[in-house]
Amino acid sequence: MALKDKSQPVALVASPERPSRADAESAIRTLLRWAGDDPDREGLLDTPARVARAYEEFFAGYSKDPIEILSTTFSEVEGYDEMVILTNIRFESHCEHHMAPIIGKAHVAYLPDHRVVGISKLARLVDIYAKRLQIQEKMTVQIADALQEVLQPKGVAVVIEASHQCMTTRGIHKPGTSLVTSRMLGAFRDDPATRREFMSIIGSQQIHD
Ligand SMILES: [Zn+2]
């Protein structure tokens, strides 16, 4: 099953054009030289290899399929039809404009319609999209739409708040700012009481941070 968002392929790892690890390390040597340093000095000798390994971690989400992660659902829910909410899912991502870190938390909720998914899957879903180059708005939509597509629930809500290091450590230099984005589908969009309940639950969580 493919995601509707064709702008971001589910897996890029299989691409035959993927450069080799050696290509990646040599690109990092170039960046070190371009920054004004000497990649052959002792302290930097292992840096290209370390950075390449760090990139494997930062961008591990390209090799994982969010739809597959969610596809084990449980239909025996004893008639449970109230909201399922996982709050304060901490994530680390990188902005696609500067490759600078985006650090924040996501709150994910859905209103089940016969099917639920293991709660750890909600956190993994956030991670899969976070571990790619992102803009926060797109990530918010991707998480919500993947849940909608697989679980077909009565509603989905995703709120993300994050600090963007491209704004805090460079450019406009505004530390302490955070960007809040949300996507509400189904009952969370159409029913003000459902949306209010969700917002009040994630609001009360934040007080205890
Ligand atoms: Zn940026």
Walk me through the structure:
This protein is an alpha+beta fold. It folds into 2 domains: 38 residues, GTP Cyclohydrolase I, Chain A, domain 1; 140 residues, GTP Cyclohydrolase I, domain 2, CATH 3.30.1130. Helices cover 40% and strands 22% of the residues. The protein is built from 8 helices and 7 strands, in the order H-H-H-E-E-E-E-H-E-H-E-H-E-H-H. Strands 5-2-3-6-7 form a 5-stranded mixed β-sheet. Strands 1-4 form a two-stranded antiparallel ribbon. Strand 2 and strand 3 form a beta hairpin. Helix 1 packs across helix 2. The chain is elongated and about 65 Å long. The chain starts with 20 loop residues before the first helix and ends with a helix. The N terminus is likely disordered. The site of zinc ion (ZN) has 6 residues, from loops.
